[in-house]
Design a protein that fits this description.
This protein folds into 3 domains: about 190 residues, Aminopeptidase, CATH 3.40.630.30; about 100 residues; about 40 residues. The longest helix has 21 residues. It is globular and about 75 Å long. A hairpin with a 5-residue loop joins strand 13 and strand 14. It is of the alpha+beta class. The strands form 4 sheets. A 7-stranded mixed beta sheet has the order 1-2-3-4-5-9-6, with helices on both faces. A 3-stranded antiparallel beta sheet has the order 12-13-14. The protein is built from 12 helices and 14 strands. Pfam families: DDE_Tnp_1_assoc, DruA.
Length: about 375
């Protein structure tokens, strides 16, 4: 084909589809080789896409979780620091966009973005079970001017503050503000994203919270009576701090060790101070993912249950009624040869599990 005559007819043959599992190694290798930020691991809700022309790879995209904090985006939506929590999953980030070197031809980028927008809503619903209402992306003005997003009718909102994520949280000084672009995937996205009814947004479960300063200070105190199972040698973080951060992340909707660790990494210096984090060279440090995992798997469940009940009594919703639910655990035999029974007590209003105990068999 004469690449100098890449006509609109040829452009119409470009297609976009999710990357298959057998292609992921190729996708990552090319992203690492050609994208200025390198490859990006697949964490949480993420879909990788490839654009093809007659089976040849043209471009690669990563659509992943939205940024936790973005002032210009949140103001455009109309979110305050509480209402956006639990709704971030309705936004996804175009975290990588790579047009492969031999495919830098007019209109290829905007065509690929347009095709991705057409299918990502259905793909997201099918894979993750909830809608996607908005796409966002961040463009480094030192590298690009964002023309491909403007050509694809994305909306430029302004600049970030320029603070960079680091292992200790965020950089102390603003470095390189990024241009923020968004692309609505529905009508009136601001109205949808601020809708008060979670069921309307297909958001299941109880609404997640955002911790205030007093809650951050009190959470570690709930775990002070739990004995530390670790050896004294090599401890860098106090056990109540590790457990308090893990509990705080879970209350804020994080699931899994990686998500808890990422939430901890995103804490600012003030929040880390409130949790009682260790200070080193003028910076408050948070425990790593391995430290969080090690502590959680070694703590006795009954001790954790008692500590969390202390938190519930201080901050939880008051319940006027309790529900009791018991189950017999199939193939779970206790030391006496009986099948194990689990009894749970759950609050009607707060949906809090006040107790979950192994009980004696019914006679």
């Amino acid at each position: 084909m004469d690449w100098g005559k890449f006509t609109s007819e040829a452009l119409s043959e470009v297609q976009v589809r999710p990357v298959e599992r057998s292609e992921e190694e190729r996708y990552q290798e090319q992203m690492a080789r050609h994208h200025y930020l390198g490859a990006l691991a697949k964490i949480g809700e993420t879909v990788w896409y490839v654009a093809t022309w007659r089976e040849q790879w043209v471009a690669q995209l990563s659509i992943s979780a939205a940024a936790l904090k973005c002032g210009v985006r949140d103001r455009w939506i109309g979110w305050d620091f509480r209402s956006q929590y639990g709704r971030l999953k309705l936004i996804a980030n175009n975290s990588r966009f790579l047009i492969l070197p031999e495919w830098h031809w007019p209109n290829v980028g905007s065509r690929v973005l347009s095709l991705t927008e057409r299918r990502v809503v259905a793909d997201w619903q099918a894979r993750f079970g909830h809608p996607l209402l908005l796409l966002e992306t961040f463009v480094d003005p030192r590298q690009f001017h964002g023309g491909v997003y403007r050509a694809a009718n994305w909306i430029e909102l302004g600049l970030t503050q320029g603070y960079r994520r680091t292992r200790e949280g965020y950089s102390a000084e603003a470095e390189a503000p990024k241009r923020v672009f968004v692309r609505p995937l529905c009508r009136t996205p601001q109205v949808q994203l601020t809708h008060p009814d979670r069921a309307h947004l297909q958001l299941t479960g109880a609404a997640k919270i955002m911790l205030n300063a007093d809650q951050m200070r009190q959470l570690p105190q709930c775990f002070t009576m739990i004995p530390d199972p670790r050896r004294a040698q090599g401890r860098r973080h106090r056990l109540p701090v590790v457990l308090g951060i893990a509990a705080g992340a879970t209350l804020c909707g994080m699931r899994g060790y990686k998500a808890i660790s990422n939430w901890a990494d995103a804490l600012g210096q003030k929040a880390r101070e409130r949790f009682g984090c260790r200070r080193e060279k003028g910076q408050y440090l948070v425990p790593s993912e391995s430290v969080i995992r090690d502590c959680l798997v070694r703590i006795e469940p009954d001790a954790m249950d008692g500590a969390l009940n202390t938190w519930n009594q201080a901050w939880g919703t008051q319940d006027e009624a309790l529900a009791l639910d018991g189950k017999t655990m199939k193939n779970a035999i206790d030391e006496t040869g009986e099948q194990a029974h689990i009894l749970s007590v759950v609050g009607h209003d707060s949906k809090t599990c006040y107790a979950q105990k192994k009980s004696a068999p019914y006679r």
